[in-house]
Amino acid sequence: MTEQQHPITPSPELVEKWASESPIQANDENWSYELYIAHHAARWGADEELEACCEWLCAVERWKSVVDNLRAARRPKPPSLKEQALLAIDTAVADDRLSAVVADVIRRALEALTND
Questions:
Q1: Residue 115 CB: number of other CB atoms within 10 A?
Q2: Domain range summary for the chain, segments of one domain joined by +
Q3: For residue range 92-116, what is the model confidence (pLDDT) as tens digits?
């Protein structure tokens, strides 16, 4: 999976905008470092806010069941390898890079492998 899997991740364009607005100018050598820091800072802040909200909800007895649903909705699990493969097949068919007949064979084989 890519770095974009987390729901709170600034786009490369936004990080580039921030870098260009900075009094210290970015350069190609530091760009990946800055992008890494920006992604992790945004994630950390979002995760801290989510946990604070969850703690607040847990303080109200009747809302405790909502917390698991909130976490699941805001931090979904990444798609499984099977789900990624099926999406890749569907994309390839939609882009006319794979025939529907071949795609069906691959789907059936994938289902057979994952049902064991």
A1: 6
A2: 3-74, 81-114
A3: 999 999 999 999 999 999 888 887 5
Cα 41 off chain centre by: 15
The Cα 74–Cα 57 span in angstroms is 15
Instruction: Report the C-alpha gap between 60 and 74 in whole angstroms.
Output: 20
CA 73, CA 92: separation in Å to the nearest integer?
A: 29
Q: What is the pLDDT of residues 38-51, one digit of tens each?
A: 888 888 888 888 98
Question: Would you say the C-alpha torsion 102, 107, 113, 116 has a positive or negative sign?
Answer: negative
Q: How far is CA 99 from the centre of its chain?
A: 29
* Token pair recorded at residue 6: 């987390």
Tokens of 18: 């921030």
